[in-house]
Amino acid sequence: MFRLGLIRSKPCTRCGLEVNDLEPECPHCKGFSDLQAVYLKQAYKDDLIQRNKSLAKLFCKLAVLAVIITLVVFFV
């Protein structure tokens, strides 16, 4: 039975990206050779790592700012 908001997916065996169970083929690596699918998977992982690094830097800056504000309020 179909429930609103629940779409089942699984990772593609070639590229590792999520694919809807209703799709007959992966739309990401469809038409690619095995080597191109490997490059796609690596590029996706590299992009995720880059985004996570920038997000981690942002959280560190916010944590330092929170500590500074807390110290200023405490000593004033």
Care to describe what's here?
There is one protein chain. This protein is mainly α. It has one domain (9-75). The protein is 55% helix and 8% strand. The chain has one helix and two strands; from the N terminus they run ββα. Strands 1-2 form a two-stranded antiparallel ribbon. The longest helix has 42 residues, at 34-75. It is elongated, with a radius of gyration of 21 Å. It starts with 8 loop residues before the first strand and ends with a helix.
Number of strands: 2
Number of domains: 1
Summarize the main sheet: 2 strands, antiparallel
The overall pLDDT average reads 88
Which bin fits the share of residues in helices?
55-70%
Structural class: mainly alpha
Strand line-up in the sheet with most strands: 1-2
Low-confidence segments: none
Which geometry do the CA atoms define?
Answer: elongated
Beta-strand content bin: 5-15%
Number of distinct helices: 1
Question: What is the terminal-to-terminal distance?
Answer: 61 Å
SSE order: EEH
Specify Rg, calculated over alpha carbons.
21 Å
Protein name: Zinc ribbon domain-containing protein
Transmembrane segments: 58-75
Organism: Pseudoalteromonas shioyasakiensis
Keywords: Membrane, Transmembrane, Transmembrane helix
